[in-house]
Structure formats: C-alpha cells, structure tokens
Design goal:
Length: 619
C-alpha cells in the first residue's frame, strides 16, 4: 500500500471518497441491464436500416401516386375495395414507426453524442418528408360522406377498422386544407421538433456541482431523497443555481412552443388552450375540469395535511422544499439491488395474474430494459411501445431507491399494456393518455400492496405507507398543479412573451397553493419548472397521471371486492388498445368518470391512508 502525504489527502479525499462510494453503489445495485435494440435494427449503419428507410420512402410515394384523390371513389365501391388500401396504409405506418422508434431510442441513450444526434435528426427529417406524402390519406377519409363510409364499413376487411375510422372522424372539425396540413407537418422538423431537441440536449448537458462532484440531472435529483438533510440542501441549491444560469434558454423554449401551439390551435379552431389535448385523449373538457376541481378542493385534506404531519415527524413546523421527498427520520435506508427489484415486481404481478408476470418477465429475459444512469442519457423513465411488429422497450435511471422499484413496476405496467394492445395493429394499438396510465399505476399499486402485506414491523410499515402517500400526492396533487401552471403559462402567452420572472412567479403561485403552508418554498425553487419535460414534449399531458391514479384507486377498490372475473375484465380493458372509448371500457367495472362523485372515490383512498398515518405513533 503506497503512502499518501496527509496534506495531499485533504485534496484527494473528495475524489477518492466519491470513487469509492460509486464502486460501493455499483456493487449494491448489481449488474444493471442495458437494452438490446437489435430486434429493431442491428445498428445505425446497418444495411437493414438503410434498406427499410429507402423502402418506406418509396412506399409513401407509391401510396400517394396510386391513391391520392381516389379514396372517395374506392369507398363507394365498398369495404372489400377500400379495406386492402387501409391495410396497406397500416403496414407503411408500422414501418415508419419502427424506423423512428429505433432512432429515438438510440438518441435517448446519449443525447449529448453528436453522432447519435445527427442520426436522429437525419432520420427524423427523411421520415417527416416521406410521411408528408401520406397526409392525404386521413384527410380524404374524413371528407367521405358519412352514409358512404358507413356502408363501406359494413363489409370486410374495412369493417375491422371501424373503431379507427370513427375515432379519426372526431378530428374532422379541426382539419385544414391539404397544403396547409402538409406545411404544418414539414415545418414541424424546424419548428416544434427542433425546440424539443434543444430542450433535451440542453438538459442532458447540464452539470451540477455537489460537494466536489460534477453530476448530471438524475443523480442530483436522486440526492433529494438522501437521509442526510444537509446533502439534500446542497443538491437543491446546486439545482437552483444551474437552472437559474439557464433560465434564458428555458424561457425562450417555453415562449416559442407556447406560441407555436397557439398558432396551431387558432388555425384549427380550438377554443380553450387544453382542447387539443382533450381531443387527443378522447376525453371531454367537462370531465377534466371536474377532476381538476375535485383535486384542488382536496389540497387541504391531502397535501397540506400530509406535509404538516411529515414536518411534525421531523420535529419542525415547516419543511424546506428539499425535504419534501426526504425519507422519514429514524428509518433505516438501504439500496435495493436490481435482482431484488425485479423479483419484487414480478412476484406482485404474479400474485395478480401469472400471465401478467410472464409478459413482464420477457422484458428482463429479452434485454428490453435500459436501467443504468449514464452521462447524457435521457432523464426520468419511459416505456416506448415502438410498433406492433416489434415490442416495447423500457428506459430507467435505476439507483436503488424504493421509488425506483415503484418506477420499475410503473413502466412494466405500461409495457404489459403495450404488449397486450399490439395485436390491434399500428392504427388501433395506441391508447389515449387517460387510459394509458391505468396499467402503470395499477402495477405500482399491486407492488405496493404486496410489500405492505408482507411487512409486520410498525416502523417499516409506516415508512412504506408514507412513501406511497407521497407518490400519490406527486401523481395527483402535483400533476394537477402542473396542469394549472401550464394553463396559466399558455393563457398569459396569448397576451405576449413571458419574462423569466413571470414564469417563475406563475410556478411559485401554483406550488404554494398545492403544497400548502408546511412546505417552505425558499429562494431557488422558483426555477424548478425548467426541467419538467412534459411541458415541452406534451403540453397538458400531466393531468393524465391524476386521471390514471384516481381511476386505479377506484379500480383497485372493485378488485378488492370482486368475487371473480376481475382479471379477465382487466385484461380485456388493456387488450382493447384504442378500439373503445374509456367510458365503454370502464362500464364492466361499474365505473363512470362522468359521475361528479367518481373522483372522490380515488381521493378518499389517499385521504384514508393519511388518516392511518396520523393514527400511528410518531417515530
């Protein structure tokens, strides 16, 4: 063993300790899987990818040359004539989706790599140009008279596509002329798509200095769940400092995309800033408003009440914002290895349905999961459905926290849903966002309930229950607050550009209202809106999380009381994909989201958990 001068040790210690800590953490986590994208294509420079790309470009041109201006005539000849044309269109859509999915997944693995960024950008440009040749197809279908199309849909093979065609016709009032639609489509590469990419690459390139370590976003956010309160504070301050330094860029991106959306909404005739999202989600504005109102009315009974309780556990009147997701005091924290996380989730799924567990196991056995944290990797987590001719992939940033296990359960729920919906084909497999979160949140609930049932230690049980309440608050209260923030931003943007200070003020107003007086929102927190990707990629997406959580709470209540047949009904719901509206899918469970009292069922479950925590002995 070599000797180190004590004077040098003062300099070397942080780096040595950081390296040692990283080694220990890796050993505790175990070998984390990285996905194998070969099921899509063997490589970015592969002949298979190049051939498919050139082939789909030719297919799109051929479709336009053969069928543009003829769909009405084909429909009048019947479903036996128009049906094969729709089948051909679906095949092309699947090929387009496979190519773009592969490029997107490669890019998400390291968004700071110039070669990956170029590959993604080049692919996106060529596919946008190719798919612009297909824009005529849905536009022409929607111009066919109802009676003509109804007659054609009575005949195979077009009859199979009735759900897709009927769903497509809901967009008819908001369609524009073909040339304008083509312009919007082609400009998306240099418009919304370019600003989305700028956001992603900016966020991935940020580095946060925490006690001598230069960290990417995910590891820094992870420290907000550390047992050391001073480390949580230091991480929060590092986040605040870097976000503030980049406020100008994030403000420009937000202003530009909000204006871009306003232009599109105005041309298409959408009245409210959220209407285009509600249409895409196939949910009525009144239902969303009822959800939001119910959650906002419940703020005092949920988040305000819980954070007051948590502050008392910490021996304080109020908690600093960096302590909001802190682990409970006097509760042992440990790193959960990957193998344990996998077995926990699969066991919970198996208790509910062996078939569900078998589908989820394929993600592990087939290397469909990318779990490690890496520099430049996309933050957060997602399950990408790719296309029905392939299979989904899951991205995680797994760091061994209990919430990471729940994230695994969540994303595998998405994955199971996507596998079950895939047989509906490329046009009808996608699920509206309101139901897309059902399987994911249900998977979390199954995992949580199994862990809770196996825990007899009162301290551990309290910690688990508190963690679940926090997750539900983050999913319901926080997401509705995000939705309120977005509404304020988009409404104010209609009056003109927003300054960084205005955006920060809007953020602080909704956060103070939703989190309540027991959370101290001190200087620095005002810029924490900058890293939320949903605001950029999918405006107004966030309420789908609250919709899904409240829906699953109600669904789980039905499951607990069901005598039999629930699993079959649940699988039927997931297998439907986008073939049925949410109301029709919920009816077999006796649930109606249009009922004013529906949302109270889900909210009361959270309230009941908080009451249970209040009755427990303070740690």
């Amino acid at each position: 063993m070599s000797w180190v001068d004590p004077a040098d040790r003062l300099v070397l210690a942080p780096a040595v300790h950081a390296a040692a800590a990283a080694t220990r953490a890796q050993a505790e986590l175990g070998l984390l899987p990285e996905w194998n994208l070969d099921d899509l294509y063997p490589g970015t420079n592969s002949a298979a990818f190049a051939e498919d790309l050139a082939g789909v470009e030719a297919d799109c041109r051929s479709m336009a040359e053969t069928f543009k201006g003829r769909l009405d005539d084909l429909a009048r000849q019947g479903g036996a004539v128009l049906g094969p044309v729709v089948q051909r269109y679906e095949t092309v859509e699947d090929r387009l989706g496979r190519l773009m999915s592969y490029a997107g997944l490669v890019y998400s693995g390291d968004t700071t790599d110039p070669q990956r960024a170029k590959f993604y950008g080049d692919t996106q440009e060529r596919l946008t140009a190719a798919s612009s040749e297909l824009l005529f197809f849905t536009l022409e279908l929607n111009r066919i008279e109802d009676a003509v199309l109804e007659t054609a849909m009575a005949e195979a093979p077009l009859a199979r596509y009735r759900p897709w065609i009927e769903d497509l016709r809901r967009d008819r009032p908001y369609q524009l002329d073909d040339r304008i639609e083509q312009l919007f489509h082609e400009k998306s590469v240099t418009g919304r798509g370019a600003w989305n990419r700028l956001f992603d690459e900016t966020l991935a390139s940020l580095r946060f200095k925490v006690r001598g370590e230069e960290l990417a976003l995910e590891p820094t956010l992870n420290k907000l769940q550390d047992t050391d309160g001073t480390l949580r504070r230091d991480a929060a301050q590092a986040l605040a400092e870097v976000f503030k330094q980049n406020l100008r860029v994030f403000t420009l991106v937000t202003n530009t995309l909000a204006k871009d959306k306003e232009i599109s909404d105005r041309w298409r005739g959408f009245e409210d800033v959220g209407d285009s999202r509600h249409l895409a989600n196939r949910v009525e504005r009144e239902v969303v408003e009822a959800l939001v109102e119910a959650v906002q009315d419940a703020y005092p009974r949920l988040s305000h009440r819980y954070y007051k309780l948590k502050a008392r556990w910490f021996g304080r009147e109020v908690l600093d914002y960096w302590d909001r997701n802190a682990p409970l005091p006097k509760v042992e924290q440990r790193t959960i290895g990957w193998t344990e996380a996998r077995d926990t989730v699969l066991s919970a799924y198996s208790d509910f349905s062996p078939e569900m567990a078998a589908i989820a196991r394929r993600f592990f056995d087939g290397n469909w999961i990318d779990a490690p944290v890496r520099p430049g990797k996309a933050p957060g987590a997602f399950a990408h459905p790719t296309v029905p001719s392939a299979h989904p992939y899951v991205l995680l940033n797994y760091q061994g926290k209990p919430r990471d296990v729940m994230t695994l359960a969540h994303e595998l729920g998405h994955g199971v849903h996507q596998v079950l919906a895939a047989p509906n084909g490329a046009l009808m497999a996608p699920t509206p966002l309101t139901l897309a979160e059902t399987a994911s949140v249900f998977g979390e609930m199954l995992t949580f309930r199994r862990l809770l049932a196996a825990t007899s230690n009162p301290t551990e049980r309290r910690a688990m229950l508190a963690a679940k309440v926090e997750d539900m608050i983050n999913t319901v209260v926080r997401q509705v607050a995000f939705y309120a923030f977005e509404r304020k931003v988009h409404l104010e943007r209609r009056k003109g550009e927003l300054t960084p200070d205005q955006l920060c003020e809007l953020w602080m107003s909704v956060q103070a209202e939703s989190l309540g007086p027991a959370i101290r929102l001190s200087e620095g927190y005002e810029s924490f809106w900058t890293y939320i990707p949903h605001f950029i990629h999918s405006p107004f997406y966030v309420y789908a999380y609250a919709f899904g959580d409240c829906l699953v709470n109600s669904l789980y209540g039905v499951y607990q009381q069901a005598e039999g047949g629930f699993v079959d009904r649940y699988f039927a719901l997931l297998s439907a994909g986008g073939t049925k509206p949410y109301g029709e899918l919920l009816a077999p469970f006796g649930l109606d989201a249009k009922d004013p009292g529906f949302w109270q069922i889900g909210l009361s479950m959270i309230e009941g958990m908080i009451a249970e925590l209040e009755e427990m002995e303070v740690p």
